[in-house]
Write a structure and sequence with these properties.
Helices cover 65% and strands 7% of the residues. It is mainly α. The protein folds into two domains: 67 residues, no CATH class; 49 residues, no CATH class. Strands 1-2 form a two-stranded antiparallel ribbon. A hairpin with a 6-residue loop joins strand 1 and strand 2. Helix 1 packs across helix 3.
Length: 126
C-alpha cells in the first residue's frame, strides 16, 4: 500500500490528478478483467493491477525521457539490484526475465546480465 501511495504522488506531480486517476482505474479494471479470464477458479481482490499499471507508466516515462536524467548511473544500479534479486527468486518468470536475466561469470564469480533490460543498459565490454 505504501508503494501505491509513493508512486501515485510521484506521478501526480508530473501528470496531474485526472491523468493518474484515469490510468489507475483503467489498469485496475483491466487487471481484474484479465485475472478473471485466466484464473477462473480463484477469487482475487486487490489493487495489484492498478499498481502495475502505474509502474508501467513510470517505466514508459523513464524510457521516453532517458536523456534528460542527470543521475542515470543510480537508475541503472537500482535496476541491476532489483533484477538480480527477482531473477534469483523467480528465474523462470517471463516478466522477470524481461527485466534482466543473469549468469554467473566463469572467471570472477560475479553475475553478469545476459538478457532483458539490464543487458541493454549495460556498457559494452572490451
Amino acid at each position: 500500500m505504501l508503494s501505491l501511495v509513493r508512486i501515485g504522488i510521484c506521478l501526480e506531480q508530473q501528470f496531474g490528478f485526472l491523468r493518474v486517476e484515469l490510468i489507475y482505474m483503467l489498469s485496475r479494471f483491466g487487471g481484474s478483467a484479465l485475472s478473471s479470464l485466466f484464473l477462473q477458479n480463484n477469487i482475487l481482490v486487490g489493487a495489484s493491477g492498478a499498481l502495475f499499471g502505474l509502474l508501467g507508466t513510470m517505466l514508459s516515462e523513464l524510457i521516453t525521457n532517458w536523456t534528460i536524467y542527470s543521475n542515470q548511473s543510480a537508475l541503472v544500479s537500482n535496476l541491476y539490484f532489483v533484477s538480480q534479486l527477482l531473477h534469483r527468486k523467480y528465474s523462470g518468470n517471463l516478466l522477470v526475465n524481461m527485466l534482466g536475466k543473469w549468469k554467473e561469470s566463469e572467471y570472477s564469480g560475479q553475475s553478469v546480465p545476459v538478457g532483458g533490460l539490464a543487458y541493454y543498459v549495460t556498457a559494452p565490454s572490451r
